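Sample intake sheet
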Amino acid sequence: MIFLFEYSTCTGDVPDSIAVEGLAMFKTLFDGFSKITEVNSFVNQDFRDLFSLPVSDNWSEDFKEHIEGSDYFLLIAPEDENLLFELTRYAEMRAENLGSSSRGVLFASDKWLTYLKLKNKVNMPETSLRPLDKPYIVKPRLSCGGEGITIGNPDSRLPDGFIAQEFVDGKDLSISLLAGDEIRVLSINSQILKNFRYCGAEIPFDCEEVLEEAIKAVESIKGLYGYVGVDVVLAEVPYVIEVNPRLTTPSIAFREVYGMEIAEMIIRNYQGKKIPEFKPRKTVTLKKVRGYSPDSVFYCRGNSIVIANRKELNTNA
């Protein structure tokens, strides 16, 4: 039995703008895991009609109860306030973890710790706890989805809990990896950002020159396991920006793009089984938009995820 916990869907305690991403990841994994084994979980009252699962009145108590009754678990939660780290640390003492260990989560969640781990091993923008003497952005050490990022002012002090990171102008990409006995590349995705916030992705994106840096980044942080996302900016060279020790939003399109059931791949990875090679069958654009659209594949609290611009590929070439 697998305990599946996605913070937004199980608690409801996230901004409306990112709740739909959480729902999409939860449903993708819930549907996939349910084809293989029993899924142990709960939802907040907003989703009582979407899933045949218990509705939670106290998510922290329900979390403890559900992890005690499970053999395995997979968690998706924001890095803010070290939430993902604390939940992982509690759960891994009670069941087998299909994702990154608490140690891996700790170093990947904190962008300053990530920089210290990787700065001499992969290309990274200059990063500091003080203002830089070059164009830079200010970002929280602990955050997700591009929340809280602003343009830096060299004449201002950094707020507590923030870092200054050199601004690198280039192509924004994310690499979806599966870390186990070896690191497998699942997909390269082009990110759609607006004011640094995540708005979607083009899946897949042909840019293999970023893979070496992304893989080295994951190899360099002990404890990263299962699905890991690496954000990269491709300028004159690839720069690793962040490492996400959890499922990321592009994965919700992998079934359509690759014919890949991501939940099955996560289980196969844990079991040490061979991960098949997947070639893209089509390209798609995944977008997060305000309101409901006829093209919505997921809708939640006034926001939709739309999959558009579908283009079939010649898989026989």
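Comment: The first strand starts at residue 2 and ends at 6. The longest helix spans residues 16-34.
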